[in-house]
Amino acid sequence: MVNIVPNNIQLEDDRTGMTVSILKRAFLDNLFYVQAKFPKIATKNDYYMALAYTVRDRLVNRWLNTERTYIEKAPRTVVYLSAEFLLGPHLGNNLISLGLYNVAKQAIEELGLNLADLLEQEEEPGLGNGGLGRLAACYIDSLATLEIPAIGYGIRYEYGIFDQQIKDGWQVEITDKWLQYGNPWEVARPEASLEVKFGGHTETYTDEFDRYRVRWVPYKVVKGVPYDTPILGFQANTANTLRLWKAEAPESFDFEAFNKGDYFGAVHEKSDSENITKVLYPNDESYQGKQLRLEQQYFFVSCSLQDAIRLMKLQNLAPERFHEQYAIQLNDTHPTIAVAALMRLLLDEYGFDWDRAWNITTNTFAYTNHTLLPEALERWPLEMFGNLLPRHLEIIYEINRRFLDRVRIKFPDEIDRLRRMSIIDESGERYIRMAHLACIGSHAINGVAELHSELLKKTILHDFYEMYPEKFTNVTNGVTPRRFIVLSNPRLANLITDRIGDGWIKNLDELRKLENFIEDSGFRQEFAGVKRAVKRDLAEQIRDNYGIDIDPDSLFDIQAKRIHEYKRQHLNALHIITLYNRLKADPNLDITPRTFLFGGKAAPGYYMAKLIIKLINSIADVVNHDPDIRGRLKVVFLKDYNVKFAQRIYPAADLSEQISTAGKEASGTGNMKFSMNGALTIGTLDGANIEIREEVGAENFFLFGLTAEQVLALKASGYNPRDYYESNPELKLAIDRLDSGFFSRGDGDLFRPLLDALMYQDDYLVLADYASYVECQDRVGQAYRDSDRWTRMSILNVDRMGKFSSDRSIREYLQKIWKVPPVEIQVPEYTQSNG
Ligand code: GFP
Questions:
Q1: Distance between CA atoms of 224 and 197, rounded to whole angstroms?
Q2: Catalytic residue among 433, 567, 644, 808
Q3: In degrees, to the nearest 5, what angle opens at C-alpha 248 toward C-alphas 247 and 252?
Q4: Which of 134, 323, 673, 808 is catalytic?
Q5: Catalytic annotation present for 673
Q6: Lower CB count within 10 Å: N or C terminus of the chain?
């Protein structure tokens, strides 16, 4: 093959060599020439940057060869459109994908430094809120690992998800300045900037062929600048691109304003444009009327579609082949404006007729729904939408008109159905319903776990299911075992590889071979030893950071995820209070010692979630300091839960809390990460819990609570939470103690909003599930006492997690929806890994 590295560079070059000695040289070279530092004055961050550049250099060959192959061969390509990519730190993951982890560790140690310290230094790109964004990150990892041509498109937020601090038990939000020391993993490509129009009006004209056409005359134009990050597959040569867009003013100055002497006006214009990609919007807040969020969505979608067409030009492909060239996945409704945007490009810019443009569009897009919660279904006030995107509104009207004609034919005389299915909600103030546009403009619609996909068909998308049953399918989520076992739990990874080889990292079903060792007591001991060692590490970290001593031999009971009432962290809290009350009543009670760990952020405007954080911290305050408890219960709220921290938490868990109200958690992915690391799950029949339980076996899973059907039935029959309070003395005591101010230094009002919500409404059936949960937790406590039995169950959880690799999810998307074959990438021999 042609060598694209210039000929005059030596083969075992500083930028490509994979041996310890070359790595050391390259590292010092980067420290000197890129960071402009020498060891005496270098900071830890300088060392991190030097290593990051050293590793990035080793990706470049794969990256550019991948890009060149894609341009030459023009293969069909997956486009993952997502407003969020919650990537987590890159350095460790790239070292693992390159097979360079141990070599780098040795090189860094020989230089008198410590790799773990440098890894810790990386500021992670928190460009997502939670599950949805993290899923996108796992999926681009798997796409590259499976050698699938793919591009991820998203937004380069200047401030990602806020950093969380805890003051006096309350969450405090701090701006996330992740870019302040520079980002060594991205490459800016200002030469590939594009323009995005906003506002203004439309006009009609007749073109040279006498055809009626529409032209959009915008009010303002914003420049989209791409920043590219290579996403390398594990033990693969494929390095796909994640292209994130930053908004800028088209020129540094508005010259007209400048000439008129309005210097400040011109600068203002510039900062206005840049605002579009300033900050990630938090979950669980109403976006209604938040024009900037709609601007963000349209901005990144428009850039991405234009970019995809530009790439086709490079490949000598005409735009009418768009749907043959690209399979575009809409990650939730956030990028759904793409349906209208692609139509506009094809109609107005390329002069296609409606039917042809519509055929291309609907064959291009597929839509993944991630939630049934009504408040998360995006809608935009029609007037605002029309002011910002006047041409798109016209196109949406036309899509809707044609669509409703079809509904009328399929379901004659059903006025109500038309009203329900219309893209325009006309029940009051008028809105554009983005989920409807997504369903109409896509050829496939999927939920993210079996139950969720079924519920979509039965509830929120029922009308669309009746209209287009063939579009509906399920793809259960998965997570990457590279980041969530190999990188985060090297002890476990080594133990597994020692017994069954390393094939499992790419083919997670091979974990099943571990079952052959279940009767081997030596293996079981080693397995239990790994867990103990990881727990000890976490305990040490907690002691250093929080000054709290936790017992590594106690049961680590962990709930780590966004704070939300449907996830029911407060149910967990009620259980802790119950155990505490039992110990207070009988200080000699023989209970299984437990450490309760919580991590998670609450949306800044979600008061109840913030009050739940305060509740947990208040309970911790009392429980951790009560001499009667004698260390048998400890409660710690771990601040600033993020990907980096999650990687430490999953491996240390004995018990994983997946206790959402059945029917509310679409899938969950934390549940998979815990289980892969040997935690047993206590959970409801919700989301992917159901499938996890099916895989690991009911006997290796702690099930409690109402089913989704029972939840509906109970609500329909008139649920009265007070009945549960009155009839269960332990529940009553727990609630009364909260109400009396026992956990809030006498302030009986502090938790009143939470208690009122529970006693008078309890939307998430916390009180209804309490007894079943507590009873199940008692069984957990008992089971943990038989450590050998526990270890067996824990091994079987790891062993049976094959299904939950994101590689399996991606294979399903490929087979059911995308139909994109792999493409092999060749790289020069001397750049291959030897480590
Ligand atoms: C959402 C759903 C989860 C699901 C993820 C990924 O998470 O159940 O696992 O998407 O599909 F709620 P959040 O983005 O809301 O955290």
A1: 11
A2: 567
A3: 180
A4: 673
A5: yes
A6: N
> Which residue has the least CA distance to atom 7 on ligand 1?
131
Q: Any residues with CB less than 8 A from the CB of 116 and at least 6 apart, and which? A: none
Known catalytic residue at 669: yes
Degrees, nearest 5: CA angle 262-266-272 = 140
pLDDT in the model for residue 377: 87
What's the CA-to-centroid distance between 281 and ligand 1, angstroms?
16
Whether 630 sits among the annotated catalytic residues: the reply is no
Where is 637: in which H helix or E strand? Answer: strand 633-638
Centre of ligand 1 from the C-alpha of residue 477, in Å:
9
Site of tokens 């060869």: 65
Say what the pLDDT of residue 834 is: 46
**At CA 171, angle to CA 166 and CA 177, rounded to 5?**
85
pLDDT at 5: 53
Q: Are 280 and 127 in contact (CB under 8 A)?
A: yes
How many A from CA of 374 to the centre of ligand 1? Answer: 14
Cα 231 from Cα 141, distance rounded (Å)? 7
Q: Are strands 126-127 and 85-86 parallel, antiparallel or unpaired?
A: antiparallel
pLDDT tens digits, one per residue of 306-334: 999 999 999 999 999 999 999 999 999 99
- Residue 79 pairs with which residues in a beta bridge? 151, 328
List the catalytic residue out of 370, 575, 614, 800: 370
The CA-based angle 17-19-24, given to 5 degrees, is 90
Cα of 131 from ligand 1 centre, angstroms: 4
Q: Tell me the β-bridge partners of 231.
A: 240
Asked if residue 131 has its Cβ within 6 Å of ligand 1, the reply is yes
Distances 459 to 453, 524, 717, 785 between C-alpha atoms, Å? 10, 46, 19, 43
Taking the CA of residue 668 as reference, the ligand 1 atom at the shortest distance is 9
DSSP-derived letter for residue 261 is T
- Predicted confidence at residue 539, as pLDDT, reads 98
Q: Which amino acid would we find at residue 282?
A: P
The CA 86 to ligand 1 mean position distance, Å, reads 12
Is residue 331 lining ligand 1, measured as CB closer than 6 Å? Answer: no
Of 669, 681, 684, 831, the catalytic one is: 669
Beta bridge partners of residue 312, listed in sequence order: none
Asked whether the beta carbons of 468 and 444 are under 8 A apart, the reply is: no
At a CB cut-off of 8 Å and minimum separation 6, what does 230 contact? Answer: 56, 59, 60, 62, 63, 185, 239, 240, 241, 242
Rounded CA-CA distance 668/449 in Å is 9
* Rounded CA separation 687/679 (Å): 18
Query: What is the pTM for the complete model shown?
Result: 0.96
Give the pLDDT of residue 621.
97
Please give the single-letter amino acid code of residue 516: N
Residues 479, 803: Cα–Cα separation, whole Å? 10
Q: Is 73 a catalytic residue?
A: no
Which pLDDT does position 374 carry in this prediction? 83
522 vs 501: CA distance, rounded Å: 18
Q: How does pLDDT run across 740-750, given as a tens digit for each residue?
A: 999 999 999 99
Distance CA(131)–CA(449), nearest Å, equals 13
For ligand 1, mutation pick of 86, 373, 445, 448 (most atoms within 8 Å of CB): 448
From the CB of residue 342, how many other CB atoms can be counted at a distance below 10 Å?
Answer: 29
Strands 655-658 and 680-683, bridge-based pairing: parallel
Which of 562, 568, 800, 808 is labelled catalytic?
562
Q: How far, in Å, CA of 735 to CA of 755, rounded?
A: 7
568/513 Cα distance (integer angstroms): 36
Both tokens assigned to 533: 């060692």
150 is written with which tokens? 């793919």
Phi, psi of 330 (to 5 degrees): -90, 110
Identify which of 370, 477, 660 to mutate to test ligand 1's pocket (most ligand atoms within 8 A of the CB).
Answer: 370
Spell out, as residue ranges, where the chain has pLDDT lower than 70: 1-12, 252-264, 266, 284-289, 830-835
Neighbours of 781 (CB within 10 A): 17
Distances (CA, A) of 647 to 142, 147, 329: 18, 25, 27
